[in-house]
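Hello,

Our lab assistant flagged a job as stuck in the queue for most of the afternoon. It eventually completed. Since we weren't sure the result was trustworthy after the delay, we are filing this so someone can double-check. Below is the sequence as submitted and the structure that was eventually returned. Let us know if re-running is recommended.
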Amino acid sequence: MPSQSKFEGIDFSQLPVERLTPEILNLGQGFRCLRGEFVTYWKQGRIKREADAYICHCWAIRSGDSLAGYITLLADKLQVENPILVEEGVKYNIGS
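-- returned structure --
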């Protein structure tokens, strides 16, 4: 008998998409994906580092206590803003 997928029967369109949080970062130790590099990015902390550096935003979809997937939006061109703005939490501006 074939094994059942952990997410079989789940309608992902009904699950909330959540902004990356420390709680979500703790999920995903058993995360698997057809594209292995996405697993590596998550497990080795690349997504967290890029989010902490303000060069990407990440949203996750979870089912119960399991990471089902994540979505990232990565900036491709950044410019440092005025140092005064850095102190206010504005670190980068997407250049034209």
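-- support follow-up --
The delay was a queue issue, not a problem with the job. The result is valid. The CA atoms of residues 4 and 68 lie 15 Å apart. Helices lie at 22-25, 36-43, 46-52, 83-87.
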